[in-house]
Design a protein that fits this description.
4-stranded antiparallel sheet; translocase; Alpha-Beta Plaits; alpha/beta; 6-stranded mixed sheet; 325 residues
């Protein structure tokens, strides 16, 4: 649904050139929720704004639903943008308009009749859970309600793609979860493809199918969230399962990270090591989490005993991800 191919964006700041995106390539599948994770200054906002050409790439191509956005201009670009909804961190609502009027605004621009606007807005208000707030002004709404207005407005043109620019960063944790639940519901109900940027691991965990980690304008890793989390060497895994630092192992003991996913997460692996190899397992850190519909776990452990090497071999043969430190 969205394809970036070797996208580069360079800003001129006086006599200096600032590289915001440096050869970014990624694919977002139809109906997928794809997250772009990175800290401030990584290039996330530039990347998402290249999708609807609010930012023009210096080079490379961006294709959305078969259309190469980087080659469009004028009316063709405006028409293509109508199929791409966008929600923002600070809502960007019109303070002098009611909920109904804010949601109806893009429909006015697209030339919908008053009757069609009214019917569409009523449908959207119900869809995002704002029944009873139709005549309220933004100042009378909570942060979560404002973002629901923003989502309804973004859906007014019946887009195939929804862009989320740090849409939950200004919200408290409970409201964030409710907005993410709404986005996931819309994704499933409407087959909506969602590209979201965030600096929060909790957002990736709760909602994303796939993720790309962006750092200094470059993608450092990408893939399915559960696959990356299950690999101890991945950035995502290390952020998701922070290790205990400064621990000094006992003489002769081995420190290892053991990761597993899916059915492996239900196996009594540490009991098996103790029973079959007489290995003592000291859990230093770790947990088992549910990511999407898949259980993923990782433990940082100290292994002690005469048959530690045989135990590690067993884990490898059983296709557990093991990293010896």
């Amino acid at each position: 649904m969205i394809a970036f191919t070797d996208v580069r964006k360079v800003y001129n700041q006086g006599s200096q050139k600032v590289v915001a995106l440096d050869g970014v390539s990624l694919l977002v599948k139809p109906g997928e929720i794809f997250g772009v994770l990175g800290q401030s200054g990584a290039g996330k906002s530039t990347l998402i704004r290249c999708v609807n050409q609010l930012e023009k790439p210096t080079s490379g191509s961006v294709v959305v639903d078969g259309q190469e956005m980087t080659k469009l201009s004028g009316d063709k670009l405006r028409q293509a943008r109508q199929r791409i909804g966008m929600i923002f961190q600070h809502f960007n609502l019109l303070s002098c308009r009611t909920v109904v009027e804010n949601i109806a605004f893009p429909l006015e621009v697209m030339g919908y009749s008053r009757l069609k606007r009214r019917a569409k807005v009523e449908e959207l208000i119900s869809l995002v859970g704002l029944t009873g707030k139709a005549d309220a002004y933004p100042a009378q709404l909570s942060g979560g309600q404002k973002q629901r207005v923003g989502i309804a407005r973004a859906l007014a043109g019946e887009p195939k793609v929804l862009l989320s620019d740090e849409a939950t960063s200004a919200l408290d944790p409970q409201t964030t979860r409710s907005i993410l639940d709404l986005l996931r519901d819309l994704n499933k109900r409407m087959g909506l493809t969602i590209l979201l940027i965030t600096h929060e691991m909790a957002v990736v965990k709760q909602i994303c199918d796939s993720v790309a980690v962006l750092n200094a304008g470059k993608i450092v890793e990408k893939g399915y969230v559960s696959d990356l989390i299950a690999k101890p060497e991945s950035f995502l895994s290390q952020e998701f399962f922070p290790h205990r630092n400064g621990y000094k192992p006992k003489p002769g003991a081995v420190i290892a990270t053991i990761a597993f996913a899916g059915e492996q997460a239900s196996q009594p692996i540490f009991a098996t090591l103790a029973r079959n190899f007489d290995v003592d397992v000291n859990i230093l850190s770790g947990s088992v989490e549910t990511v999407g519909d898949r259980r993923v776990g990782q433990f940082h452990v100290e292994l002690e005993g005469q048959k530690v090497i045989q135990a590690l071999k067993y884990l490898h043969e059983a296709e557990f991800e093991v990293q010896v430190h």
